[in-house]
Design a protein that fits this description.
42% helix, alpha/beta, 327 residues
Length: 327
């Protein structure tokens, strides 16, 4: 038995969640993976996995072995990578998964710079709101919005979304300008709903007393940021959108920012990738490039919120809402 091969198979099984997906990722047959795990358990004289036809879980010994195996394999991959990268030019196919809005509005418009710098890399972008299993689906890295919930993945924070609460001028003239976030409970809004929970996302604010979430009244839900902004522009209600998606509309007055004194909480953005995967030159340069794109983008890093403040000045000429009676 090749212990290193068996160790890699064991780590893939744990991260993929079953033998079949691990075999697919390793490009071998499922019985081969089963024999490798059995051989590893026989060599160690301990059971690493409790498994049946419907259930699989790590034993206490398996958890300890997994943690040490991941570190060992990552260190070995880094040693190999460092030795090869000194003479290697990044090349080959790179599979990247990215949320629809970030991919369409931020990453794709900047890709000419990446291709100019690394012409040997063939980039395969999966753009959408479905989060795949990176190990099982063979994805090299992914750009995630919000806190990372996947286990056993390395996450590098590369930026954060700034949010603007805004509406069209005609909507504000008809419904009034909210004075506080709690006024939103009685105001019409358009809501984004989460592709993961199926529930509408609340409007979020950061206050001196801590985070505040408001669920405004609404008659429309959408799951796409471009449709969401279009609904705001059409006067269908208040929206709370990333500033990169509404920058032009705020600058030219088609949308007006409100509640500028109630800072909307920012949302972190990460690049994630499997820790046990050989971090090749193509993956490493893409991650570094994506970090530079976010670092240079005014709406994807901490800012002085000047855009929101300038837009909000227009709201002062519009009628205020009547005092809200909601509690």
């Amino acid at each position: 038995m090749d212990q290193l091969v068996a160790m890699r198979a064991f780590v893939h099984v744990v991260e993929a969640g079953n033998f079949t997906k691990a075999a697919r990722a390793l490009k071998v047959r499922t019985p081969t993976v089963t024999r490798l795990i059995q051989g590893l358990e026989g060599h160690l004289q301990v059971r690493l996995l409790q498994r049946s036809t419907r259930f699989m879980a790590l034993t206490a010994e398996g958890e300890t072995y997994y943690e040490r195996a991941v570190r060992l394999l990552a260190e070995l991959a880094d040693v190999d990578s460092s030795a090869k990268e000194s003479a290697a030019t990044p090349s080959g196919r790179l599979r990247v998964e990215c949320a629809a809005a970030i991919g369409t509005m931020v990453i794709v418009p900047a890709l000419a710079q990446f291709h100019d710098a690394y012409p040997g890399v063939e980039l395969q972008m999966r753009i959408g709101n479905r989060r795949s299993n990176l190990i099982a689906d063979g994805v090299d890295c992914a750009i995630r919005i919000g806190e990372v919930t996947e286990q056993f993945l390395v996450a590098r924070r590369i930026g954060e979304l700034q949010l603007a609460t805004c509406a069209s001028p005609q909507f504000l003239r008809s419904h009034g300008v909210p004075a506080t976030p709690r006024d939103l409970r009685a105001s019409a809004a358009v809501r984004m709903y989460s592709a993961h929970t199926g529930q509408p996302v609340p409007f979020r604010f950061a206050t001196d007393a801590g985070p505040l979430e408001i669920a405004p009244a609404h008659s429309l839900w959408v799951n796409d940021i471009q449709a969401y902004v279009a609904a705001g522009l059409a006067g269908l209600g208040l929206i709370q959108a990333p500033t990169y998606a509404v920058r032009e509309a705020l600058l030219d007055g088609r949308l007006v920012a409100v509640l500028e004194n109630w800072r909307a909480a920012s949302i972190p953005v990460y690049v994630i990738y499997p820790p046990n995967r050989f971090l090749s030159a193509k993956v490493r340069v893409f991650i570094d490039w994506a970090a530079r794109v976010f670092e240079g983008h005014a709406d994807l890093k901490p800012s002085d919120r000047g855009l929101v403040r300038r837009s909000a000045e227009r709201a002062r000429a519009l009628p205020a809402r009547s005092p809200c009676t909601a509690t």
